[in-house]
Amino acid sequence: MLNIKITTTLLLLGSVAHAETHYVAANPMSFSPDVIYVNAGDTVHWDYISGFNHTVSTGTNCLWDGLFHESLASFNPVVEWVIPMDAPSEIPYMCLPHCNTGMTAMIYVTHPEPTCPADITEDEIVNVSDLLMVIAQWGQSGDADISGDGIVNVSDLLEVVGSWGACD
Ligand SMILES: [Cu+2]
After folding, report:
1. One digit per residue, pLDDT tens: the chain, 168 residues?
2. 20 CA to middle of ligand 1, Å?
3. Would strands 35-39 and 104-110 be described as parallel, antiparallel, or unpaired?
4. 110 alpha carbon – ligand 1 mean position (Å)
5. In 119-135, which positions are buried (b, 16+ CB within 10 angstroms) versus exposed (e)?
6. Alpha carbon of 86 to ligand 1 centroid (Å)
7. 158 by DSSP, 3-state: which?
């Protein structure tokens, strides 16, 4: 029993430790560092340092692409963004007022492979709760579509049965 508790605790710690925070400083005319490498699900944290009011705005050629935009200024000195799981692998961004003078930067996003795809309920174990998800979504699309073929069917049922037990 104690072993089970320890294992569960380690698994929980493992999943929590996975998401990181990356710090970027907005200096008067540059982001520092201006290139960062993150995993989807990580947080990027920008700090306003001094000087001019900036923005954190995704896009290129001084044009906002609609993905993310926030003021980074004396009145809003911290911006945080959790990189979405479906984010593109390259996110160029800029300060809109100063992009003409080169205040641009890049976020490279890695999308980690799910380590336990049959764990639909994301509780670190493949068990009856995942089986019930497959049954509930049978014949439809949904997150129980483990195989990614657009429909929940016997391939997903077999995936759950074949992965039965605690996630590695
Ligand atoms: Cu700026």
Report:
1. 444 454 444 444 444 447 899 999 999 899 999 999 999 999 999 999 987 899 999 999 999 999 999 999 999 999 999 999 899 999 999 999 999 999 999 999 999 877 899 999 989 999 999 999 999 999 999 999 999 999 999 999 999 999 999 998
2. 25
3. parallel
4. 27
5. bbeeebbbeeebbebbe
6. 27
7. helix
Report if residue 84 sits inside a domain: yes
Q: Which tokens belong to 134?
A: 């497959």
Domain count, the chain: 2
137: domain CATH number is 1.10.1330
**Centroid of ligand 1 to alpha carbon of 28 (angstroms):** 7
Q: 28 and 91 in one domain?
A: yes
Do 36 and 100 fall into the same domain?
Answer: yes
Q: In this structure, are 35 and 79 located in the same domain?
A: yes
Domain range for 150 is 125-166
Distance 7 CA to ligand 1 centre (A): 47
- Report yes or no on 9 lying in a domain: no
> Measured in angstroms, how far is the CA atom of residue 90 from the centroid of ligand 1?
21
Residue 95 lies in a domain: yes
Give 108 Cα–ligand 1 centroid separation in angstroms: 21
Nearest to 68 by CA among 39, 89, 94, 47: 94
- Looking at the fold, whether 50 and 131 belong to one and the same domain comes out as no
